[in-house]
Amino acid sequence: MPKNLIQGLISGPGYKDDSRRRAVTKIAARRRLPAARRSTRMRASNTFVSATGAMAFPEAVRIELPILQELEAAGGSDQPRYLYERLVRYFPQLTAEDIEERTGSGRSRWRNLVQRAARQLEEKGEIRRERLIWALKPVGRRRIEQEALRVAPRPSPDEMPRELSHKQAQQLLVEIGEMLGRFAESEFEYYDVVWRDSPAAPRLSHVFEVQIAGSVDSALTRLKHAYDAQRSRPFLVVADERAAQFAGRRLTGSFHEIWQAITVIGTGELKRLYESLKSQEELLKKITARD
Fold first, then answer.
1. Which distant-in-sequence residues (6+ apart) come within 8 Å of 134 by Cβ?
2. Is the pTM value of this prediction over 0.70?
């Protein structure tokens, strides 16, 4: 039985390894330059650059897809004031000083850039933009789907057929949760599978996204939402080792904030875990029984 995976499923929230957390903190600290050494930025096209030419703010076009993904993860619409902060996480090169930077008129450069990207999306017919709410339109949803197909890792010709479908993986996760004494359900809000300590518990203790095909970005965005909102334990189920490596690259980039909290599970590992637990189902019922 995969002991590490079971420990991840039944243990409480927290970091997997304090030494890894300290290492990431040191890396993040090195990214931040003292204010006295920061160059005065000049505006060039849609990008703000330093006098040395190093990029600080991304081009507005690079913010378009993250906006669409965040809106999709939020159920199709959200308020801009919440998006400003969440979008920062897609661009780890930005520092706190960058986000606080102001224009000559006193407006936030970062918010201006996000607004410019939103205007471009509106002009393309991909979102509806009102003063207090931005909402996805069908064209925007199609762009997310097309992007998922474009960046998805291609399986090698000799790769073994996938053993589990998306629905089958969801069903296994629900049954595993029930065997471990959790209240489990699939298709809860916009999550594939969630576990709670009890039916009445408001907190989602575990959140699972199943990504058998396509880009993992949308799944990681939803898991990041769950982790940020309730410190739910995030789990990503992928098809194979190739997909797991691809997800790992995304977790050390745009989604580095949940890198130490998330667990990536292959469908083969998920199936083996299910079979191991199923063979001891009666014993598990006695162990997890509540008075």
1. 67, 71, 77, 78, 79, 80, 83, 118, 127, 128
2. no
> What number of CA atoms fall less than 13 Å from residue 205's CA on the CB side?
19
Residues 139, 82 share a domain: yes
- In degrees and rounded to multiples of 5, residue 234 shows phi and psi of -90, 140
Q: Are 238 and 265 in contact (CB under 8 A)?
A: yes
**pLDDT per residue over 255-283, tens digit each?**
888 988 999 998 888 999 999 999 998 89
Q: What percent of the chain has pLDDT over 70?
A: 75
Domain count, the chain: 2
Structural domain containing residue 262: 3-15+161-288
Domain identity same for 143 and 183: no
Four-residue CA torsion sign, 205, 148, 5, 259: negative
Pairing of strands 42-44, 127-129: unpaired
Task: Label residue 181 left, alpha or beta by phi (over 0 means left) and psi (-120 to 50 means alpha).
Answer: left
Give the phi and the psi of residue 123 in degrees, each rounded to 5. Answer: -65, -30
Strand partners, 260: none
145, 248: one domain: no
